[in-house]
Design a protein that fits this description.
Length: 284
């Protein structure tokens, strides 16, 4: 078992290994919790990678699962140690969606549907600042600036010369029509969107209003896929107070099929680029 460089992904991989050991032993999370005198929710959080895990936790769990191969125990202990390291985003303090950032940082590809705004990875700094300020009207200016800086740092995955993030985004026409800031800002944003869409690893498609009802009307979501086959894909749904991460194969499959329908109903790449450019001309 090898560990990944990213602490978030390491923690997730470790949780998957611990879940497999429990299932191989034929135990439920409740039974393990009873043995260790902890809550069942703690075992669940450790297995889904949402909670930091200590080497002591790993040692105790390996004891319950009667793991006899010391090499496996040592490997899991090292993964636990590595998973407690800090990613680049920790330098910005408490970031609400740090789990997502950790996953995005290590993802090989990202499929995004956004019905309301331009996706964060394709936003200009001015657009991001105005958008975040509007969405969080009671947030201090320093916090707004921190979030903007984090968003700009995330965009380095798009501009990276080696192994850039493969981004496929489908957005609703509303995201292009909603004037964030003023018309000049929107013109710059849409021009930037057209420019980014020409990158070989970035695909942008638009669903125009006249397309009518489509599978994306339930709201925004993203599907993250990873370079290592051992790391299963994740569907991310952003919430106001908490976020949702779906990892069960059946859930990921349903959202993937829905995304294929979105791509099929959207304008193709060239049509989308022309559509965005035409709207940009109106913001003069």
């Amino acid at each position: 078992m090898t560990s990944n460089v990213n602490p978030t992904v390491r923690r997730r991989r470790l949780g998957q290994e611990l879940r497999k050991l429990r299932e191989d032993k034929g135990m439920t999370a409740e039974q393990v919790a009873d043995r260790l005198l902890v809550s069942q929710s703690k075992i669940s959080r450790l297995e889904n990678g949402r909670r930091s895990i200590s080497q002591r936790d790993v040692r105790d769990l390996c004891g319950v699962y009667e793991v006899e191969d010391q090499r496996i125990v040592d490997s899991l202990m090292q993964m636990a140690k590595d998973s407690r390291q800090q990613g680049w985003w920790h330098a910005f303090g408490d970031v609400p969606y740090s789990v997502y950032i950790g996953l995005e940082t290590d993802a090989a590809s990202l499929r995004v549907y956004d019905p309301q705004v331009v996706p964060g990875l394709l936003q200009t700094r001015q657009y991001a600042e105005t958008l975040i300020s509007g969405a969080l009207p009671e947030t201090a200016a320093a916090e707004i600036e921190k979030r903007v800086q984090v968003r700009m740092r995330r965009q380095e995955r798009i501009s990276a010369e080696e192994n850039p993030l493969r981004l496929w985004t489908v957005m609703d026409e509303a995201a292009l029509r909603r004037i964030v800031g003023d018309k000049s800002l929107m013109r710059d944003q849409l021009d930037h969107l057209v420019e980014q869409s020409r990158l070989p690893h970035v695909t942008v498609q638009v669903i125009p209003f006249d397309m009518g009802a489509h599978p994306g009307l339930n709201g925004q979501y993203a599907i993250l896929e990873f370079p290592d086959a051992a790391d299963s894909s994740v569907v991310y749904i952003e919430g106001v107070t908490s976020d949702l991460y779906l990892e069960k194969p059946n859930d990921v499959q349903k959202y993937s099929v829905m995304y294929e329908h979105l791509r099929a109903q959207a304008l193709n790449v060239d049509q989308s680029r022309q559509f965005i450019a035409e709207i940009a001309k109106k913001y003069t």
